Amino acid sequence: MTPDTREHDIIHAFVELSNELVDGYDVVDLLSEWTVNCARLLDVAAAGLLLVDGRGLLHLVAASSEATRHLDVFQLQRDQGPCLDCFHTGTAVSVPDLAAESDRWPDFARVAESVGFASLHAVPMRLRDTVLGTFGLFGTTPGALNDDDLALAQALVHVASVALVNERSASDRHVVSTQLQHALTSRVVLEQAKGVLAAVGDLEMEDAFAVLRRYARDRGEKLTVVAAQVVNRELAGQELIDHARSTSVLR
């Protein structure tokens, strides 16, 4: 990516986010696309976003790939990894070489290596003094992010935090917790719908997500609304799969 191309893509990403916030948006769809764009803009292999619930526990809300999703879930299950340290300290954690930190996070470093990740950079998501979660950037080769990339990552995270929680509500912890819980609940429904489609169409989970998104966008529906309809059997999974094949999302 040339400097001019990258600058154009960064501007486009911020404009796209701003338009979504003005027009009304599905938070899980927005954040899922946001993780993909962040990974591309920051030239890393993948990205994942963890959010806190009302009990202070982290949950996965968006990931740019299934491998990232599985690794983030592993972090949470083992209560071990750079993203958790980032959340607890409220400061960025940069790990240019995960193999060199195997003593610090032995289980996480081993599993990360097994799925092809060699570096990780975690940035806190916060709104004023409230830490909402943490954003992880996963690399397949060892290496640090430069200061400009870290600053861009933090700026992207700040915009995403506004998408989650209205800044005027940041001082009301109950409102913040309610808004975050909505995003987390929506993610659960989305994962259930992906599972239904994967079973019906014998699909990989990433393909199931692409099927859901294509159907929702072509129908002008929110992603989580379509997901709920699939889960509740109000919308046949085969209908979504047939639509995806007709639009070349699936072969």
Tell me what you see in this structure.
Helices cover 59% and strands 14% of the residues. The protein is α+β, with helices and mostly antiparallel strands and 251 residues long. A hairpin with a 5-residue loop joins strand 1 and strand 2. The longest helix has 29 residues, at 173-201. The chain starts with a helix and ends in a 5-residue tail after the last helix. The relative contact order is 0.12. Mean pLDDT is 86; it is low at 167-171.
What are the defining features of this structure?
Arc Repressor Mutant, subunit A; 10 helices; globular; Beta-Lactamase; alpha+beta; 251 residues; 2 domains; five-stranded antiparallel β-sheet
What is the strand and helix layout of this fold?
Blueprint lengths: L2 H21 L3 H15 L4 E7 L5 E6 L2 H13 L3 H8 L3 E3 L10 H9 L4 E9 L2 E10 L7 H18 L8 H29 L3 H15 L3 H9 L5 H10 L5
Antiparallel strand pairs: 1-2, 1-5, 3-4, 4-5
What's the short story on this structure?
This protein is an alpha+beta fold and 251 residues long. The protein contains ten helices and five strands, in the order H-H-E-E-H-H-E-H-E-E-H-H-H-H-H. Helix 7 crosses helix 8 (205-219), helix 7 packs across helix 9 and helix 7 (173-201) packs across helix 10.
Structural class: alpha+beta
Which residues sit in consecutive blocks of at least 5 with pLDDT less than 50? Answer: 167-171
Principal-axes geometry comes out as: globular
- Which series of helices and strands comes N to C? HHEEHHEHEEHHHHH
Query: Which strands sit side by side, in order, in the main sheet?
Result: 2-1-5-4-3
Largest sheet: 5 strands, antiparallel
Query: What's the CATH class of the largest domain, please?
Result: Alpha Beta
Q: Please report the total strand number as a whole number.
A: 5
From the alpha-carbon coordinates, what is the Rg to the nearest angstrom? Answer: 18 Å
List the total number of helices: 10
Within CATH, the superfamily of the largest domain carries the name: GAF domain
CATH architecture of the largest domain: 2-Layer Sandwich
Separation of the first and last Cα atoms = 30 Å
Q: Please estimate the helix content.
A: 55-70%
Indicate the proportion of strand residues.
Answer: 5-15%
| CATH T-level topology of the largest domain | Beta-Lactamase
How many domains? The number is 2
Overall mean pLDDT: 86
